[in-house]
Amino acid sequence: MTMVYSLFLGPIAIALVIVQVILVSNYLALMDTRRDTDKLGALVLGNVFTTLNLNQFVVFTQTINIFQGDTNIRLWRRITSAEFLVDTLPNFLIDRSIEILDYIFIVACFFIPFFGITIVQLIFAGQNGFAYFQPYFKELRKMDEKELRKVYYQNYSKWYLYGVACAVIESLPFLSGYLQPSLFVGASLWSARELKEEVKLRTKKFGPIQPQEST
């Protein structure tokens, strides 16, 4: 990278490379952190809803092993089913192909000084913003992948705007990792406000909503 920059920028190439490495390292660290934030997001969501006296709506299910019993038989039935071959497998291959292309594009942007990371953040702002709301839709609404995809595209402008706002915090080297939980808090507060509005509308139409009981 230093050699490439030095061809165009001369002596300042070394300083520019150092700054670029810091920005890229910060972005990669955030990408890796997002993979393990499901539990954090669910925990923040539960605490926020409890603080706002909405804990009666927070019913989290325990993880169930779908391969209980004879694993080989269940797995074979699953991968040979019509749903898997016609729907699940093609969607999986398409999603993985898109991810590979995304990674190639991101790596190419890493070589653009300063603006490379910004370009990546703006392009993927919708996905990044929606990631902070997924605990609400997954844990509370119990949505599957198809329903999540529908919600994502129906409210894309909302996720994009929130993703752009998150990009400002995520762009702060050394501080973004400490401030990332606050983004889950913001998403949880936003979700709580929408849930309150929905409860009010349903209460006017159908009467008080009975709280759910955990099983």
From TrEMBL:
Keywords for the protein's UniProt record, in alphabetical order: Membrane, Transmembrane, Transmembrane helix
Secretion signal, residue range per the UniProt entry: none
InterPro entries, sorted: Spore_wall_assembly
GO CC entries: ascospore wall; lipid droplet; prospore membrane
Transmembrane segments: 6-30, 103-124, 159-179
Superkingdom of origin organism: Eukaryota
Name this protein carries in UniProt: Uncharacterized protein
Organism lineage string: Eukaryota, Fungi, Dikarya, Ascomycota, Saccharomycotina
